[in-house]
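Feature request disguised as a bug: please show the residue count (146) next to Lysozyme inhibitor LprI N-terminal domain-containing protein in the output. Example input:
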Amino acid sequence: MNIKNLLYVLFIYNTASAHNIKTSDCSYDQLIQQDKVYWCLMDKYQQSILALKNEEISAEKRLKKYDTEGARGCNEDGTIDYEPYIHIARITFPELHRSFIIYREKQCKYASQSDGARPGYRSSISSLYCKTSMNLSQIQWIKNTI
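Example output, currently without the count:
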């Protein structure tokens, strides 16, 4: 592996780890202007998207490995006992991602509009807070479940 690939891997790892993403860094207390809060949150949102994608790829690999190499028992006739739920989870995992994206967009749109009309970037800021926190909770759910 050459140095360019090594630096790229380190960059992706540092930007795609969910534990480094903190929306509290973008609070109004630290950043007075709305545009700075907006762009800070946009950066956190992009990081959460990368971290979510990274965690989904890792979960798909775990599901595939367990589906093909998992320890399964044997039936009475000597055939391998196949657990269909793992296979079904592996097949339906991409649909889970699509469903989550649709749910996240609708939930955050509702949440940002339920506060009423607000001046400036406030509805966009509310939406970015929502999307980032939902991405982080989805990452945690995937880590805990799969």
